[in-house]
Each structure stands twice: as C-alpha cells, then as structure tokens.
Design a protein that fits this description.
14% helix, seven-stranded mixed sheet, five-stranded antiparallel sheet, 20 strands, alpha+beta
Amino acid sequence: MPRLTLRPHVHLIRLIVNLLDTLSSVRARLRARKDQDVVLGPAIKAYDFMFASEVDLNDLVKGYRQEAASELFQISREQYVAGRDANTHGTANPSVMNYPFWIFQVGPGGGTAWKARTTFGNPGDHSTDLEDPVWCFHRFGATFTKLPDGRVVCIGGEHEDDYDPDFCIYNDVVVFDAPQKSDPPPLLTPEYIKIYGYPVDIFPPTDFHTSTYFANPTTGKESMIIIGGLGYAGQASRDQTDVYQLDLTDFSIQRLVTSGTSPTGGTSHHKAELIAVQGQAAIKITTQEGKELIIEEGGTASTTTEEGEKSSDEDESRESTIPDRGKVTIAISGPVTTDRSKVFTLRIYDMRWI
C-alpha cells in the first residue's frame, strides 16, 4: 500500500494532536485534584492549587450568593473613565487598587473589556475609546487558589491576544474574603473583594505561571510561591524562570533568588505540586518541552528541540502510547509539534533546585 501523504493538511494534524494532548492533560489534572488534602510530611499539607484558568472561579466563591448581588455593583460613566486603563499599576508593594470600575468588573455584573467599552464608553462612537486596553477580569493564564481559611486568591492572567486593542497581561492580585458560614449564604458585596497592584519592577505582568500555597511549619507564615510565567515579549520571564513569594498577611511580593540547576530559559504552561523531599517541603514542577517531529524522505523520523538539537529514529517512532488514548499512529509528511515533559524540584527552605 502506498504511503499516505498529508502535506496540505499538516496544520490540521498539528491541531488534532495538540487538542488530544490537552484533553489528556486536563483529565490527568482533574484526577490529581482528588489528592489535594494529602499530608506530605510533619506539618506540611498540600492544599488545592489551580493551574491557569482550568477551574471556574464561580466554583471557588460558591459560598456567596450572587444571584442578586449585581444590584450592589453599580458604577457611573465617570467611574468607568477614571478606572478603565488596564495599564494602571501599583506604586507601592502593595497598592490597594479598589477602583469602583475594577470592583464592578470582578463582581457578578462584570464582563469583557469590549462589553465595558460599549456599555460605558462614548455612546456615539466606540472607536474613539480605543487608546488603551480596558481593565477586566475575564482572563486566561491566571491562577485561582482557594486557601485553607476560605479566601480565594487570583493572580495575574491575560485578556485577549496581542492583535486586540484590549490585550493586556496583568500583574495584580485579586482576593475574595472568606464568606461567613450562614444559612442562607451571605450575599457577595464589594466589601468582600480586594485588589492589590504592584510596580512592574517588583512584580512584572504574568500569565501561565503557577501559584502554590505554602504554610511554613516552623513560623506558621502563609504564602504563595509563584513560579515562572510567560509575560510580554521581551520580558525577562521569556529567558529565565523567576520565583516570587506572595505574603498572605500583607500581600507584599518579593522576588526570590534561587540556586541549583533550574529549568533552562523561561517556564510557562507548566504544573506545580507541593511535595516533601526527605522531610523538607518542596515544589515539583513539570514542564513541557516543545519538539518538532519531522518525517524525512526514506521513512526516517527526526526530532528537533527548541535548542536545535537533533536526533533520528526509525519509522516506528511515529507510533506513541499516550495515557487515556492508547497507541496513536500518525503517517505524515511534514513537521508536527510534540511535547516531552521535564521535572524540576525546588526545595523551599533554601530555594534550591535539586
């Protein structure tokens, strides 16, 4: 039987392969969430952490009643104009930035930047309101983490892509206070929401990072360890894996200096898990290294890494076993992007990659 050549449809094949990989990854992460309260060692406990935006924020704040709360989140056009600019950053570490328009966007009545622009902007000509992106809370690549005390902490994230006038990568922290237990549950009001901003040299815009809750077993200090992130083109995060610590008492942020062999280059779209290594708390991250599989003439397959390293395999390299999907055979002529995972572990007490 002659070899099937799908060169004109290589982009479609790439899309299908990446989609199947994504579905498998999501299923694995959902299964992992069942183990969120497993004790890892003395006074070390892993709590629920959320990667990117795979979790519906409404599920995390379901302790509030929201069906009638939108009536409490009302703003004027003047308040929209005063707080619309998404490029507004904090001047202190942290700055409390509870602008009425931002609180409105976080609340039940909030929407996309375009919805806000068309609702509160120039009613005669929306095109005159395009000079800056509009602040919004509809984001992807953010982390949503429910703390043991019931608070929900949301960090960073991105709205739209760089071709859109409302494209923005955020460096803020949004906190929902823990709801009081009552029957019926309390109504979500603006007083339960706090927004913190930071200078970009203290905490740069970030998306597709991870945020892991950690309670120091000796001091009791609670914090979030923020690892990696994509950020804007040209940011240092594209070339190095930064680590930040968010203090859950005053919500200040500091960059942590690490040692050891860290991931090469920037790290994003990864997973993080709090573990114990020889009785010490550590964070294990799993990265995805992009590979390009090229089927060459004569049935030889080679893979090229992002660093340009190349290796060759025989025809059977086109068959791979993928969890939850079994064996998949792809017969193509042309490049296909694949992924290979790498695991790194960061010991928390001395911030060393081990």
